[in-house]
Design brief:
43% helix; 6 strands; Mannitol-specific EII, Chain A; 6 helices; globular; alpha/beta
Amino acid sequence: MAIVLADLLEEDRVTLEVRAQSRDEALREIVGTMGGAGAVEETAKFLAEVRAREEVHTTFMGNGVAFPHSRTALVSTIVLGIGRSRAGVPFGEKGELAHLIFVVGVPQRMVKDYLVCVGALARLTKDDENRAALMSSATPNEFVTLLREASLLLE
């Protein structure tokens, strides 16, 4: 069975107030929520992989959104960690500010599922109203509910 975006959304992996002021600190903060049973096995190694990937080519997509990720053996299924920064975190080659950061861990065998899920996230966050709603959500539950409802409209 194919994985859809709604399957990846977990409140305990949403950080609504990222405190970090640099890309690497923000990634560390978000990846820190992704450990545990059935998730990322070794968060320090995973963080290193995500940072290395980001050094090769930025995952900043514009509109204040970034999708840092790693195809890795450190996860058995796709894992998503989300961070929101009202102030923004410098990302990309020009230091543009990312306000919504979606960190994804994906097993090699699930690349197609990964592309479907990230494609859905990209379409959702491209919309000004969706981004504004995510930026103004008050709780992780509200944030996840907004994403889940919007993703169902895409299917």
